[in-house]
Design brief:
There is one protein chain. This protein has twelve helices and 19 strands. It has about 450 residues and is of the alpha/beta class. It is globular, with a radius of gyration of 24 Å.
């Protein structure tokens, strides 16, 4: 743990929805790894910090020595999973009167030209306030901002429990005065998260700018809570390490500058870069990346250069921000299996790390991981022993078998199909999960003009 020749420890962390993986380089250049459940409140408050302390050989209450760590570089799916599971902060949209439905109407695109059932992107904001104001494209105030009425409606929303607000005015990207007044008003009322379009996405096009601002307001609170928690535990003194986070574009940024709109593909972006660098060692440049985690599966295409987009659809939500071109579906090892209305359903909600799948020894629901375990596609002897009260036990096949036996009984009672077995039920769920992932691969391949 001691420094040598002025060198320090370096840490690279992938904080997923289910597992957190850590690679560390000691001052003498030795590499070490650590794998932990991302959420295990009975054993530690934060997996990344606990893993760092474990690799440093520190006791639970022992402080991290000043100057011991040089940098911590982290990719996280905190924002990705919150978007997939729709578990972000309830958000208020403030927009110019007459445009309250603009984000719902969108662009009227028809990606599936012959589809008779059109599924619109799901809105993240919970409530809309249309304010009396209007500035034209040349900056002339057509309708002055009605501050009294706007303040009253903001106070009502705050009293009803909303704490995140996205402010998007018609020409606010170019003439932000009214947006600035509303933002100051919202902060004075007490909104802890205020996202303003001329700061989040200062470009023309109301819909894309509005969607991105809403995403920022929706995700930033949960992201900031996590970032601050990690920074507080690592940076308790002036000699604390530099904390950097991977952005959706594939670049790193300081923890203090990390925000919702840049974090949607934080974890997956690191996987794309790792895939490309690893393949390059073998001389490969034409790749399709498949990254299946506990909560989501990410698919990407690489043809010798990193493909980025500025306006894209992520988890059913339109965004305009620099991002790696990655297609994400809510289908991972932790995706919960349910029999609903006579049909098998996989996800999109995930068991996460706490309680995790049924086989994680914490009373969790049946998941894709359990289906693979029941069908012997996962071998407990080759899976990390990080479960149980002390974090040292293997997967529990008995809990998985009991869960599928009970679920099979429920399906038989509902359908009358007495020929079903737990294995057949597990196979049926996996077939749906595989179809979801295959569709993701096909979609990104078609987008890039390749046949599958």
């Amino acid at each position: 743990m001691q420094e040598r020749d002025g060198q320090t420890w370096q840490f690279w962390i992938d904080r997923g929805g289910t597992f957190t993986d850590i690679v560390a380089r000691s001052p003498d250049g030795t590499l070490a790894t650590c794998k932990l459940l991302s959420d295990n409140p009975e054993r530690y408050a934060d997996a990344a910090v606990h893993g760092i302390r474990t690799l440093l050989g520190l006791a639970p209450d022992e402080p991290i020595p000043p100057g011991c760590i040089g940098a911590v570089k982290m990719g996280t799916t905190v924002a990705t999973n919150a978007l997939l599971e729709r578990s972000g902060e309830p958000t208020l949209l403030v927009i110019t009167r007459g445009f309250g439905d603009a984000l719902r109407i969108g662009y009227q695109n028809r990606p599936e030209l012959f589809a008779r059932h059109i599924v619109l992107p799901e809105l993240l904001h919970e409530r809309v306030i249309e304010v009396d104001e209007r500035v034209d494209a040349a900056g002339l105030v057509v309708v002055p901002l009605d501050t009294a009425r706007a303040k009253q409606e903001l106070r009502t929303a705050f009293a009803d429990g909303l704490r995140a607000v996205a402010i998007v005015l018609l020409h606010g990207y170019r003439f932000p005065d009214h947006e600035q007044q509303l933002a100051e008003m919202a902060r004075h009322i007490g909104f802890p998260q205020v996202s303003v379009s001329h700061q989040v996405s200062p470009l023309i096009k109301l819909v894309a700018r509005g969607d991105t601002t809403v995403v920022d307001a929706y995700l930033s609170p949960i992201l900031r809570l996590y970032v601050d928690r990690v920074a507080e535990r690592l940076d308790g003194n002036e000699n604390g390490p530099r904390l950097l986070f991977m952005q959706s574009s594939g670049g790193l940024t300081d923890a203090s500058l990390f925000r919702g709109r840049d974090a949607v593909l934080s974890g997956p972006a690191g996987g794309v870069i790792g895939m490309a660098r690893t393949a390059a060692m073998s001389g490969l440049t034409r790749l399709i990346g498949f990254d299946m985690g506990g909560t989501s599966t990410d698919v990407t295409h690489y043809d010798g250069a990193f493909e980025r987009s500025f306006e894209t659809l992520v988890a059913g939500v339109r965004m305009r921000a620099p991002l790696m071109r990655i297609h994400t579906v809510a289908a991972g090892g932790g995706s919960i299996l349910r029999f609903v209305d006579g049909r098998f359903r996989v996800g999109p909600d995930s068991a996460g790390a706490d309680p995790g799948p049924a086989c994680y020894r914490n009373g969790g629901p049946l998941t894709v991981t359990d289906a693979n375990l029941l069908l012997n596609r996962l071998q407990p002897d080759h899976f990390p022993r990080v479960f149980g009260a002390n974090g040292d036990q293997p997967l529990d096949p008995a809990a998985t078998h009991q869960g599928f036996s009970e679920l099979t009984g429920e399906i038989i009672a509902a359908t009358g199909r007495s020929d079903l077995t737990p294995e057949a039920v597990a196979e049926g769920f996996l077939r749906i999960a595989v179809e979801n992932m295959a569709n993701a691969i096909k979609k990104i391949s078609v987008q890039q003009g390749h046949d599958v």
